[in-house]
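Design job #97: recover the sequence.
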């Protein structure tokens, strides 16, 4: 026979077990659902792999060309795919550090307007606002407002920078976030990326060193641009390779 104290404890345990059995279904239904989507839960390494796999044929060709020829000369490098409005930032060893949509010059074209070195940026007409294609040696710096940027061609006032506040009618943030590339043409020629991407990828890779920026053409095959560069190297023209 149980003593009074033991009988009481047994009764308490019995009540607790009945309460737990009653509440268990409610507790389970209220528990957070863990997502099982492999892409949503992908590690940073998998996300980078997926980003690289989704790159265009032009971007893949340029990456193979750069790494095979070691054209970056031990520097970090960037591939800007204008046709796809995307940017890929690589470490010096060719490891992808990050990829992002980008805003580009308003007008398609692969050449800068003649005499742009003597022009003020606001004076550029709409048909002159292109992002020129080519191979550029970049360097970190600041614009006239003290904002940190990556200069692609300082004389031509061509830079890579983070998204800035602009006229609401330009809808720059919405353009970067949209699924289409048709609306990514809005800048005066500079390459504009999301703030988070600039601060977590571009700055850590390029803020203290030179880099090599490959802006892929959109009016001619990428093979033609890189082939011409390779020919110039074979002929001994090493101007602009490193500073």
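Job complete. Output follows.
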């Amino acid at each position: 026979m149980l003593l009074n104290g033991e009988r009481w404890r047994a009764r308490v345990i019995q009540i607790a077990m009945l309460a737990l059995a009653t509440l268990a279904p409610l507790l389970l239904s209220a528990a957070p659902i863990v997502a099982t989507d492999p892409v949503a839960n992908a590690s940073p390494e998998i996300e980078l792999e997926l980003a690289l796999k989704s790159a265009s044929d032009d971007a893949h060709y340029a990456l193979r060309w750069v790494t095979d020829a070691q054209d970056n000369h031990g520097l970090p490098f960037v591939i800007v795919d204008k046709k796809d409005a995307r940017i890929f930032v690589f470490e010096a060893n060719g490891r992808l550090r990050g990829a992002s949509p980008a805003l580009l010059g308003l007008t398609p074209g692969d050449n800068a307007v003649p005499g742009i070195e003597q022009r003020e940026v606001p004076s550029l007409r709409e048909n002159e606002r292109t992002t020129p294609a080519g191979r550029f040696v970049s360097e970190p710096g600041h614009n006239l407002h003290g904002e940190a940027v990556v200069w692609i061609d300082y004389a031509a006032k061509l830079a890579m920078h983070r998204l800035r506040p602009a006229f609401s009618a330009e809808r720059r943030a919405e353009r970067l976030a949209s699924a289409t590339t048709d609306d990514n043409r809005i800048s005066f020629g500079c390459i504009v990326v999301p703030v988070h991407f600039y601060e977590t990828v571009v700055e850590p890779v390029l803020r203290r060193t030179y880099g090599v920026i490959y802006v892929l053409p959109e009016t001619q095959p990428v093979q033609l641009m890189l082939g011409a560069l390779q020919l110039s190297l074979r002929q001994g023209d090493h101007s602009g390779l490193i500073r």
